[in-house]
Structure formats: C-alpha cells, structure tokens
C-alpha cells in the first residue's frame, strides 16, 4: 500500500518580503498562510484541509501570530491585517492557496496512471540530488513532491543496486554551478547510441542562468522555471513529457487560470467555486440581523423560502422540458466540420479552454473572435470546439466574401426547412428578381428558425470586412434567439467592434507544439524516439519554419512525399520560386481542403494592401529591408507623410501581419514575423526588378542615413540602440546593395556605435569604409567618418592617431565642403577634445572658440550645439585649473539650456555635473552637492539606471560627500558608480580607474590605507597607459598615492610621489599644485618633529622652515586661482596661525 503524501507547502521563494513583513512585524511563510485563511473567513477544519495540516497545528500557529502582534485575542488578528494596508496582498495569496489545492487534486488523479506503468526518474547532477536529501523546504523539494503526487517515482542516488537498474530517465537541474558538468554530461550521452533525447528533462530555475546562456543550449528542450508566477504552467510541461498519452486538459485549463490569477474576475470566481470543489461542510452562519428575528418569524421566512425555491425549480424544469421538446422534434442540423486526421492534427487544449471560459458570460448571444495570421489554425480550432457542442443547430458560414456569405445562408435556410411547405417558401424566394429583397427574405427565414431553436452555434469563417457581414450577423436576441458565435478573421481591428465580446489571439506554436505536429505527420501518428543528434538536426530545421500549423504541415508532408533533405527544403524556401510554391500547393491539396501556402497568403495580403494605396509599395520594401522586430514608425514617417504611415499600419493590422506594437520612451515601433518579411522581400525583388543601381534602393538608403543622422544629432540614445539591428540587417542585403550605399550606412552605424560607447566595433566599421568613401568621392560621409573615427580613437586612448584622423576630416570639409559650416564647427570642437586629452589646453581652447564662433555666426539659433560647445570649453578651463573661468563658462552654458532648451535634460545634467565638480574644487561643497543631486534627477528621467553618465554623476557626488565627511554615504555612492562602470567598460578603462581612485579617497579618510593603496596602484597603471606619466590627470593619482603613504607613515615614499606630482602640476602651471604643497608642508613638519625627538635641532629647524615655506606657497597659489571667499584660503591661514607664522586676524604674510 503506497504512502499517502501530504500536499507540500509553498517554498519561501513564493513569499515576497512585502508579504512576510506587515506593519514592521516579521512572519513565517506558514503564518502568512494561516493569516490569509483567517482574513477570508475560514475555520480551523477548512484551514487544516486546505494547508494539509492538523487542526491543533492551526491553533498553535494562531497563538504565535497573536504573540508577534502583541494582541490578547485571536479575533484581533483580522483588524491588525485590515489596518496594515496589505489586505489585497493577503487576499491574492489566499487565492493562490485555493488554486494550488485544486491543482493538487488533479495531480492525484494522474497517480492512477502509474499503477499501470511505473515512471522512474533520477535527479541529476549528484550535487543537486544530495542537496534534495538535506533541504526539504526548497523549491526543488516542492517540485519533487508534486511529481510524487502525480505518481512519478523519484529515485535516491544512494538506492540499492537492484532499484538503480530502473534508472533510465533523468531530471537534470541546470544551475550556474552545474552548467559545465551539464555540457559534459550531454556530450557523453549524445555520443552513446543507448540514450535517447526523450530520456532527459532539463529544468532551469536558477535566476542567474540568463537568456544568453540558454542560447548556448538552444538545441536542448529545457523547461523554464525561472518565473515562479508560471510554475504551474511549467510543471504541466513536465507532465506532458512524461504522460504523453494522458488527457491533461483539466490541468491545462487550470494553468490558464493560473496565468490570470491576479485578476479580480478569478479572485471572485475562486472564492465562489473552488470552495465548492473542496467540499467542506457548510458552516452555520449567524449574524446580528438573524439573532434579532424571533423563532416564529424565522420559521415563516424559512417556509416561504422553501416554497419559492420549489416554485422556481419547477419553472426551470418546465422551461427546459419545453425547449427540449422543440429540439427533439427538429432534426439535429450540423455543417460538415472537417478537421485534420489524427495523424496530422495538433490538439491545442489551451485555446479550447479559453473559448470555454469566455463562453461562460451571461449574454443571450455570445460572440468570440479568433484572430490570427492566415494558416494559424483558427478554422480548425473553431471546428474542433463546435464538434464538442450539443447544440441543435451547428453551422459554418463562409464569410470570406459577400457572395460566399449569401450562399452559406441560403444553404442553411434549405437545411433548416423541415417541411414541404417551408421548402416551397424558399423556392419562391429564389424567384424574386431583386437581389436585396431576396437576401432579406432568406435572412428573415433563418432568423425565425434560429429563434425557435435556442442555443444554436454558428461559425463565421474568415471574415475579411465585418461591414460585409454585419447585416447577416446575430447581435440582437429578440430577432435571432439565444446562441453562440465564433468568428475567425485575420483582422486585428475586429476587437474594437462593439458586437464582439471577446477576442482570442491564435498565435505562434511553441517549440514543443511544432515538434509534436511535425513528428505526428512524419510518423503517421505513431510515437517514435530520436537520438539526440537526430533531434538536434530536426530542431534546427524547425527553427527556420514559420511557427504555424500550416507551415509545419506543408513542410512535413513535402518531406514525406519528396524525401528531400532539410537543407534542400530550406534552400527552396529561401528562393520562394513559383515551382516550389506550386508543388507545395499540390502536396497540400492531397492532404487537406486548405490550398493556400504561406507564400500565397502573404503575397495576396500584400497585393490587397497595395491596391488601397500605391504609395505603400516603397514603404513595404523599406520594411522588408529592415530587421523584422521593433521597426520605428518614425523611419516610415521620414520616407513619407505621417498619414500614409498610419494607413499602412492600419492595413498591416487588418491582415494580422503585425505581430506586436510597442512604445518605449515614446518611441513607437511595430514588429512583423521573420517569414513575412522574407517573403515580402522575395516578392518585391522580382516585382520591382531590384538591382544594384536601383534608384529605389538609393532612395531608401538615403532616408535611412538621414534618419540615423537625426537620431545621433538629437542624442536619442534609446533610438540609437534600436537602430543598430536595422542598419546591420540592411547591410546584410549585400547581394543587391551597391558598395557606395553600404559605405554610407556603415558610416552612420559606426557613429552610432561610438555614441553608445562600443568603441571597438565603431573603429572596425569606420576603418573598413574609408577607402570606399574616398574612391566614390563621397566627401560628406568621408569627412564625417574621419571625425567619428578620430573620436573613437580618442576614447580608446590613441590620441595621436585621433588627432591625425580629425585633422584629415577638417581638411575634407575645408577643401571639398566649404559650405558645410555646421559640420566644420563640429569637427573643430571634436579636435579640441583631443588636444584637451593630450594636455594641450591652449590649443583646445583655441579650437573650441573657433567652433563656437562659426556657430554663432552662421547658426545663432543652434542653441544645443552652442550650449554644448561652451560647456566643453568650460571643461578645458576646469582641467587646466582655471576654475573661475570654468565656472563662468559653465554658468553661461547652463543659462542657454535653461532659456532655450528646457527639455534637454541630458545637456542640463551634464553641465550640472561639471559645474558641481568646479564648485567642489573651489571648496563650495554644499552648492556642489545640490547641483549633483539635480543632475541625477535629470539623468534618471532619460537613461536606464546603469548608464555611464549616471555613474559619473554618482562618482562626483560621492567625492563631495567624502569632503563633507559623510564617509558611509560617499562609499555607497562611489560603489554604485563603480558597479555601473564594471558593466559598461573594461577594467583597464580610465573611467574605471577614476572610480577606483574615488573609492580609495574614502578609504584613506577612514584609515583603510592598505585597501586604498591597492586601488590607487591599479589606477596609476591605467592612467599611465592612457595619459603617460607626466599628464596632470596622472599627477592627481600620484598626489593621492603620496598622501596615502604619508597617512600610512611611509614618509620617504610619500615625499617621492608628492614631489613627482608637484613637478607635473608646476610645469603645466596647474593650480592643483596647492594641494601637493599643502600635503608636503604637513610631511616636512612631521619630519621636523621626528628629528627634534632625535635632538637633530638643525635638521629639525630646516624641515620646519621648509614646511612653512610650502604652506606659504600653497596659499599664494590659492589666492592666484581661487576666489577670495575660498575655504582653502581660510584653512591654510588657520594652519599658519597655528604654527605662529601669522597672527590671528592677519590675512597677508
């Protein structure tokens, strides 16, 4: 006798932190289960059965809950929860518990199957199997318990040898720790002829397993458990693999509810129906009102209620008898609803369940529309559902055209005519010469017959235009009676029709459905097992077949009939020639009544779309040349008028050719299926006779170039990311694109990669297109590509090559494009940035001023460029150490942004960051902090949280908090900055080194000198590689490292690094030398004290005077470069007063 398993408790992963903490009180998961039941009015016995625990255990948990919330009575628990603001969260959890109970009841029914045939599975790898034995409250343990309830035996790795012989199937749990072992295990298995692919079920639950990792094992059929909300649906997928012949329709129906379990509808339904399913004894309900009613009145009320109940029941029975009488005296009328034979038929219970659910509404006439692209299986699903109905009249109406609709109605009328008299009436209708009058007579006849036979069922198949069928459509029960209607259509707009109550999308098949249908046809419905190598080959083939029943059916029957290889079939598909299409149609005619191939469906749809407006042709070609996913509609607007684009998208939706429409950061995009795009392109290549020199391809290339340039000029980073795939897809059509078009688009693509900080790709693309641009004298693109390449090399630290590229680009502008003043001014300021990086600040300033002068002269209203250029000029002055001038220029740039570019949050934020940095250097820490916080607000409006500009702002803000001695906050912000850089640049990049130096500064301040030294040593190496040893940027790291040695007590090394940094600053006339001088002054005074302790008074006095001299020099440097109010002046003066060099109140030496 088998052990009866208790239902397992949800593992901790199902309980959010928000659920487990209520009003500051922490609860266990089981407490939350109990609370959920109590809040929803459950008693001990019900709770025990629902949670599979004893009543005494329920009482014990209630006492613990009461103790935690500090209440005396159990009745206080519910008010506590009601006042917490989390009542809805608790109720949703209760709904999940009810759902879990129902799901487990269905699993118990499957246990009977294991009595006929044993199903043994071993958990692999060994590491996970061992963990399962020790951790009984884990997610994996929860899953295994459900498998056991369903009758599946899970073997222990340590079972005795006899039982281990049963070990032929594996549940492989894939985690980041077991990934490498998994690859090796699969390799070992695949090389063995003994093992079959179906023996292994791979489960993925580790959230660290990314989609990128899963792509590496795309040839393995895995089941995804990473999203716990889909747990039950994923679990059913395991059952489908194991119990392949079992009817799992009820479980699938429940799974559909599970995906919807947060909706109000399901919560209400769960409360009212699932409790009935549990079959608890009905409690006696008493309330304040019933207590007040006297015994006599209560009997009267009960008696009256019983009488009304019997009366109502008798009326229902009478009405049903009358209705059944009408039905029984009419011949059952049904269309011939053919569906594919069992060996070619794919059962889709999830869609059937959705139809069933939607038909539970209360309308007299219930209407459901099945919407999808041609060949998705809409008609088959409608017929499959209709064949299960027990309605007196089930009829399919061919609604593709008005003519087929009228014919279908006339056929229905003749079928409904039950007497000779009725048939004579219909014959008289045929003699009416006026078409409209004749149609109305037939319509009225059908309406009357349907009205007298309630609960009819109609299918309106393949509606193209609802206006054609509206007159013949049942929407008023007083005229048509009661019944159900299923519509099949490609028109995605039909959901907006007021007569349609529910729309169900008949979408793509998943990988399992594709494989099942394909193998059914190939093997004539018999199950077969493939070796892993065969299965992999089949999966690769099916990945290229459009995921719809039509396409899988054609492919399977074609291969079966012709015995061509997978590769040959895919080659035919790619060519889409007429002979292949005709042969596909012939194969299809042999096996079904459906004769349209995917090619003919798409081509016919395209032709109908183009018939509505000839201007659609070029736009459809443009779409065919882009990536099929997330096509920006602004690109189409650039090619033609907005209204034309609107009209085209409307028509694409009408034929269900658009698979998805979305809006990300106000960027509207749409997607089409890959096969639709491929067929469209093949059609247009032939129809438009496209060749390399086609003016149409040049026009599309030019529009794509202009659109890309606009996106870059606007610094629209979100659009740039989306545009990459479209430019790359366009360039992949090299067999009919001319070399010059490819180089033009490559220039824009290289520029996009530069702006998105992917400098290696940008360098490769821009380098490769140089010669072509020169050869074809494409000077605008050549000059632009040289400037982009120069900028890329600057970012990669190759400043001399960057300078050469930009100078060459400027020569192209000056010699060949003198009219391009805007681009020339842009080139000047980009070259200025290179000179700034080389430390040649005067050259940089000169070039910035030259670029700004050109802009103000020719484009005085190009505020975005002028504000940007002035801001970057200010940045040069800042790095040059001219803080006052930098502050003035940053404030001028900020004024332009605020006055003319109020919505340019990115530009404003950039100025805020750098002006904040200037304020920090001037010692104005609170003003700096305020600006930097503002910059983050603006950046986060425009950028994702891991954007590099956000990292920069966080780093600067962390430095300010460090200056303000808020070291914990400083460390937190700088670590955030460092994490963002880790995900965006290599750990040898100067940005990463800058962030490390910032963190080292915090460590220094809190005495963590060893950690600070390690970070600074690494940063110094990176700065040297990028700037050289004698650059002012490197000097900052040398100064910081020297200060760290000083604080650590290593005075000799400190002096060496500080003197080297001071030498670099003084040779560059950089004001930051004041900081080196101040630290060196402290160092010499400390040395003086040490010499004094040794009684070396002469050396002590010498060092002391040297320290005071350095302090004085530091003060002179500050006064020369900083405002009179600078706190640096006050700090140095206080030190000099302390050492008695100047008197208190004295401001000069």
List keywords for this structure.
alpha/beta, Arc Repressor Mutant, subunit A, Rossmann fold, 56 helices, 6% strand, globular, P-loop_NTPase
Structure description:
The longest helix is centred in the N-terminal third of the chain and has 34 residues, at 295-328. The model is unreliable at 160-166 and 257-330 (pLDDT under 50). The protein has a 6-stranded parallel beta sheet, with helices on both faces. A 5-stranded parallel beta sheet has the order 4-3-5-6-7. A 3-stranded antiparallel beta sheet has the order 14-16-15, sandwiched between helices. Among the domains are: 12-108 and 261-267, Arc Repressor Mutant, subunit A; 120-242, Toll/interleukin-1 receptor homology (TIR) domain (Rossmann fold), CATH 3.40.50; 294-328; 333-505, 3-Layer(aba) Sandwich (Rossmann fold); 527-596, no CATH class; 863-984, Tetratricopeptide repeat domain (Serine Threonine Protein Phosphatase 5, Tetratricopeptide repeat, Alpha Horseshoe), CATH 1.25.40. The protein is of the alpha/beta class and 1149 residues long. One of its GO terms (biological process) is regulation of DNA-templated transcription.
Indicate the proportion of strand residues: 5-15%
Mean pLDDT, to the nearest integer, reads 84
Basic shape: globular
**What's the β-strand tally?**
16
CATH topology of one domain: Rossmann fold
Estimate the helix proportion, in percent.
55-70%
Keywords: Membrane, Repeat, TPR repeat, Transmembrane, Transmembrane helix
GO molecular function: ADP binding; DNA binding
Protein name: Tetratricopeptide repeat protein
InterPro entries: NB-ARC, P-loop_NTPase, Sig_transdc_resp-reg_C-effctor, TPR-like_helical_dom_sf, TPR_rpt, Tscrpt_reg_LuxR_C, WH-like_DNA-bd_sf
